[in-house]
Amino acid sequence: MAKGPCEKFLRDLSAYVDGTLSPKRWEQVSYHLAGCSGCNAEVQAISDVCSKLSTCRSSQTPESLAARLESIAGEHAATPLYMTPGEGGLPSQRRRRVQLACQSGVALIAVMVSAVVIAVLVAPSPLKVADPVKAAREQYSRSLTAISVNEAVGAMLLANERGADFGASESYLPLTSETESLPITRELAANLLRRAADADYSLTGTQRVWVSDGEGRYRTADVRTTKKAGYGAHLEVLDVRGNLFGSAFLPEIGTRPVEAPWGWEYVRSGTTEQVAGRNAVRIQANAEGLPVAKWWVDAATGVMLWAERYDALGRVNLAVGYKQLSLDEASFTTDDGVQLIALQPASPSDEQTWCLGLATCPREVGGMTLVAYSSSDQTDPPSMNLVYSDGYHTAVVGWTAGVLGDDALTLTERSTDMAVDVWQSGDAVLSVACDCAPAVMQEIAAALPERKAHHQSIGEKIAGGLARLTRVG
């Protein structure tokens, strides 16, 4: 390279090539280059390098400084090269991806929150159980019809619940007993009553039912009865004008346990007595010198011909008996009869796969044994009914998913023919209907889930709402 005068031009050669010199200095450098081959060669070399850099920049190198630095750092760099301590920073692809991810996350959370809010808003309210006391009374009457040796009583009570016109209340004259009474053991009394329950004969007849109204009078109804041995019974309830109000077919379920209650004294008639034109044996239960119940069973067949029940003062509160009876080969069809209840005999097995709603279905309540049940998980709401009996008293326990109206916790009704208790137990309504004393009702309630107000958690609301949205979708 040239010495001496060239030294004062070397630092300007690069600027000369870039065209950044002032006009006056550019003329001075140009004059020197015209006579200096060494500096001229240096300018050519600088021009070649700039030309190559320009080519690379146009085809590969990003235009902006931030883009260049990103390219140098690489897309997997932990931090862009131009980032410096402190707030802020120039944009980068990595930063943009983070921002997009954050925005997507926020959007997803917003969608999820919206879905939860909507689920809570559309969550179905618990079903209100319509008139649970009436429902319990009807279920009791249907069950009494299906398991009692006096099916006519249950049929009449059910018709009464459903509005049958039986006219004005009437008086009732108890059957008189002129024959002497002989003491018998509890076991013998139970055997005689069990024989009546097991009697399976074909017959036709008309029974009369009297139910006390609590004021010394009785609601009455006639029930035409047709039974076919091994098949079942057909009952027709007549109103006050003798017109058919309703009929029912009751299949034989073979579940009629009879136990003579403890604490009573039992007697039987020394000779037969006449009932419905047939010879009958009278069985009587007494408590503290007063009659509790009387039964007249046919001496030849064991068929129950008449029965009376008494209150604590020794007054008749329920009576049923045949006005006319014919034991023959009965025949009938069930086309015009509605099967009002489909009971299943309770299995003695400990397995309770049939038990719906309750954690366990008690085998015994209030001294009565579980004899039959009916359940339905296909209806809305699902329900379960348990029938308990000792052959004298009958209790029906009901479980129904839902809530009582008006935020009620308990409902109670007492009448001459039965007592009904209803209460809320969490997400279900429990009911007990029984023709028994208040103390027995308390025993039954103690064996069942306790009273507990309904409470639906947020989680349950969300689950219910999402399930509903899924079904709608």
TrEMBL record:
<keyword id="KW-0472">Membrane</keyword>
<dbReference type="InterPro" id="IPR041916">
    <property type="entry name" value="Anti_sigma_zinc_sf"/>
</dbReference>
<keyword id="KW-1133">Transmembrane helix</keyword>
<dbReference type="InterPro" id="IPR027383">
    <property type="entry name" value="Znf_put"/>
</dbReference>
<protein>
    <recommendedName>
        <fullName>Putative zinc-finger domain-containing protein</fullName>
    </recommendedName>
</protein>
<keyword id="KW-0805">Transcription regulation</keyword>
<feature type="domain" description="Putative zinc-finger">
    <location>
        <begin position="6"/>
        <end position="39"/>
    </location>
</feature>
<keyword id="KW-0804">Transcription</keyword>
<feature type="transmembrane region" description="Helical">
    <location>
        <begin position="100"/>
        <end position="123"/>
    </location>
</feature>
<keyword id="KW-0812">Transmembrane</keyword>
<dbReference type="Pfam" id="PF13490">
    <property type="entry name" value="zf-HC2"/>
</dbReference>
